[in-house]
Amino acid sequence: MIRNFLLIGILFFPLLAGVPGHAEESTEIGSGEAVVVQASSSWLEDDPVEVSTEAPDSKPSAWIDPLEPVNRALFTFNDRVYLWVVRPVVTTYSAIVPVKARICVRNAFQNLFVPIRLVNNVLQGKFVNSGVELGRFVINSTVGVAGLFDPAREYLNLLPSKEDFGQTLGVYGIGDRIYLFWPFLGPSTLRDTLGLGGDYFLNPLSCLAVADWHSALGAKSGEEVNRNSLSLGEYEKLKAESFDFYVAVRDGYLQLRQHEIAR
């Protein structure tokens, strides 16, 4: 039972968006300043983007975060899970597995999760990006040895586009509504939480879970550990540099999602 709890904890802990990294990120919030944040996603390594840290007038924190006391309690819970469970596992894994091997594992999972990005690009009318995703999949699955390598990026400059169903709902005019912070899952909104359902059915691991949920859980847990190993130490740095860590993560997440939907 304890083993299953730990596996589930690692599985559902992409960890605070703008932290690991998906692998990966750093976020520093300061009034009126520009900040570089990076999306956290369990299936994609994102490129940094610059966004403003000024909260939109139409979305004061009191409106977007009416559940702040509950969210803060869950935020503290996730912080403890990371420090006491995830970090020791990731640190041990990083010490054993070479960086190049971990990058190959990351590439393989990124290639596996192409259906999520491809379908959401189509739903958003981004047909060029859809073609890029399809081309990346063909090239990396063959020349890239089942996705372990990324020749599509290295030689052809074909980059993955971070798209998910939460972004698709945003493109069609569905707003954030309410900010939510979930145990293990981390920051989200009502819209993005609904979006997880759409992405679930596009995730190849969901098909595996139907036949063998133990294998699917193990694969997802391994992907999370590997992904976080490539950004080890960034969580602690972000936490140390933030005046209010909860607000930094919340505002960084909301602004980044706005940027991703608008681009």
Summed up, what is this model?
This protein is mainly alpha-helical.
Proportion of helical residues: 55-70%
Q: In total, how many domains does the architecture comprise?
A: 1
Mean pLDDT: 80
Share of residues in strands: 5-15%
Integer-rounded radius of gyration: 18 Å
Helical element count?
Answer: 13
Order of helices and strands: HEEHHHHHHHEEHHHHH
Low-confidence stretches: 1-58
What is the tally of beta strands?
4
Structural class: mainly alpha
* Shape summary: globular
Largest sheet: 2 strands, antiparallel
Measure the end-to-end span.
44 Å
Task: Explain what you see.
The protein has helices at 2-11, 61-64, 68-96, 99-112, 114-123, 127-142, 151-156, 165-171, 190-202, 204-211, 213-229, 234-241, 245-262; strands at residues 34-37, 49-52, 179-182, 186-189. Strands 1-2 form a two-stranded antiparallel sheet. Strands 3-4 form a two-stranded antiparallel sheet. Mean pLDDT is 80; it is low at 1-58. It has one domain (2-95, 162-262). Helix 3 (68-96) packs across helix 11 (213-229). The chain starts with a helix and ends with a helix. Helix content is 61%, strand content 6%. A hairpin with a 3-residue loop joins strand 3 (179-182) and strand 4 (186-189). It has 263 residues and is mainly alpha-helical. It contains 13 helices and 4 strands.
